[in-house]
Specification:
The chain is of the alpha+beta class and 353 residues long. The two termini are 38 Å apart.
Length: 353
C-alpha cells in the first residue's frame, strides 16, 4: 500500500481563476480518505491529478516518497474506479477484470488466482461469463471495483462511483466498499458530493469549497466542531440552522434582530456588539412550553423522524423531531436551544470557541 503526500498543489487553466489553491494533505498508508464538497469545488480535479490524468500547475504529489508529477498514470501503480464504470461492452466480466493483467503478460495461473479472490470478495462468481449489458448497475460497479482489485495497486481512487445508482443500491454499495476496504487495508481516496457517503465511509473527511480545503478530520470532528459556516452547513442531514445576531458580552448571549437573547453559556473573545452567527443542528433543537417564538410552515414526515420547517424572525430553520403530534402549518410554538449544542461563528464565518 502507499502513503500519499500532496504539497502546495494548485491547478489553473490558462488565464482563468485557479481551480485548486495550495492544497496540502498527507494520506497515511491504508487510510480511507473522502474528498467531499459541492460540484465545482475541485475534488475530482485533485483526484485526477493524483492519478496523473491532469497536469499539476504548481506543487508536488508524492507516492511512497517518490514525486510523481511527471510520471505517466500507468507507472504510478494506482487504480481508479470511475462513475461511468468504463467497462468494455464486448468483453465478459472475467475478461474486463483481468484485462490489465493480460496486457502485462501476467502468467495465466496468477491471473486465475487474482480473479478468483476478487470475484469471491465482490460476489461476482455467478456473473464471470456475462457481458456488461446483462448486468445491473450495482453489478457493473462491482466489476469496475474488481478490475481495480486484481491489479493489487498501491492506492485506489474512487471518483463518485455510486452516483448512477438508486438510493437503496447506493446504501448497499457503501457497505460493500467499506467492508472491502477493511479486508484489503488499501490506501483509498474517494470523491463524493454526498455528505452521507462521506460520513459513513471515511476515516477522515477532507471538506472542500472553492478549490480550498476547509477542514480535515474524522467524520464526528467535522460534525461536532465544524471549522466554519460552510462545513457546518454542508455536513449533517438536514444541515445546520443559522441565526444572525450580535454578541452581548455581559450576558454571554447572542442578540437577535428583535433583541431576544440566546444564552451561549460561555464567554467568547469578541467585542460588545460584534456581528456573529449562531448555529444549531436540527436534531439538537426541541419544542418547549416557552422559549424562542417560531411559526410552523411545513411538516415533512420521513419515517425515521419528522422535519419541521420553521420561521424565526425572517429566518428559515428546520427541527428534527420524533414526536408525531398533529402539527399544522402556521401554528405558533416555542423552541428550546440548549447552550451545550450551540455553535458560534464570527463575521468571517470562522468558528469561535
Amino acid at each position: 500500500m502507499a502513503k500519499i503526500d500532496i504539497r502546495a498543489v494548485s491547478k489553473a487553466y490558462g488565464g482563468h481563476a485557479p481551480v485548486l489553491t495550495d492544497i496540502d494533505l498527507s494520506i497515511a498508508d491504508g487510510e480511507f480518505i473522502v474528498l467531499v464538497g459541492p460540484s465545482g469545488c475541485g475534488k475530482s480535479t485533485l483526484l485526477r491529478m493524483i492519478a496523473g490524468l491532469e497536469a499539476i500547475t504548481a506543487g508536488t504529489v508524492a507516492i511512497d516518497g517518490r514525486v510523481v508529477n511527471d510520471v505517466a498514470p500507468k507507472a504510478r501503480d494506482i487504480a481508479m474506479v470511475f462513475q461511468s464504470y468504463a467497462l468494455y461492452p464486448h468483453m465478459t466480466v472475467a475478461d474486463n477484470m483481468t484485462y490489465a493483467l493480460r496486457l502485462r503478460r501476467t502468467p495465466k495461473d496468477a491471473i486465475a488466482d487474482k480473479l478468483r479472490g476478487a470475484s469471491a470478495k465482490l460476489g461476482l462468481d455467478a456473473f464471470l461469463g456475462r457481458k456488461p449489458k446483462a448486468l445491473s448497475g450495482g453489478q457493473r460497479q462491482r466489476v469496475a471495483m474488481g478490475r481495480a482489485i486484481v491489479r493489487a495497486p498501491k492506492a485506489f481512487l474512487f471518483d463518485e462511483p455510486l452516483s448512477n445508482l438508486d438510493a437503496r443500491l447506493r446504501e448497499q454499495m457503501r457497505a460493500e466498499i467499506r467492508k472491502l476496504h477493511a479486508g484489503l487495508g488499501a490506501t483509498s481516496i474517494y470523491v463524493t458530493h454526498d455528505q452521507v457517503e462521506a460520513m459513513t465511509l471515511a476515516d477522515r473527511i477532507v471538506a472542500m469549497h472553492g478549490g480550498i480545503i476547509q477542514q480535515v478530520g474524522s467524520p464526528l470532528e467535522l460534525y461536532d466542531r465544524p471549522a466554519n459556516l460552510f462545513v457546518a452547513g454542508f455536513i449533517g442531514s438536514p444541515g445546520m440552522n443559522f441565526l444572525p445576531g450580535t454578541w452581548d458580552a455581559e450576558a454571554r448571549a447572542v442578540r437577535l434582530a428583535d433583541g431576544a437573547a440566546i444564552p451561549l453559556g460561555r464567554a467568547a473573545p469578541l467585542a460588545q456588539g460584534a456581528p456573529v452567527t449562531l448555529g444549531i443542528r436540527p436534531e439538537h433543537m426541541a419544542l418547549a412550553p416557552a422559549g424562542l417564538p417560531a411559526t410552523l410552515d411545513l411538516v415533512e414526515p420521513t419515517g425515521h423522524g419528522i422535519i419541521l420547517h420553521l420561521g424565526v424572525q425572517d429566518q428559515s430553520l428546520r427541527l428534527l423531531t420524533h414526536d408525531r403530534a398533529n402539527l399544522t402549518p402556521a401554528a405558533s410554538l416555542y423552541l428550546s436551544l440548549p447552550p451545550a449544542h450551540l455553535h458560534l461563528f464570527g463575521a468571517d464565518g470562522a468558528r469561535i470557541d
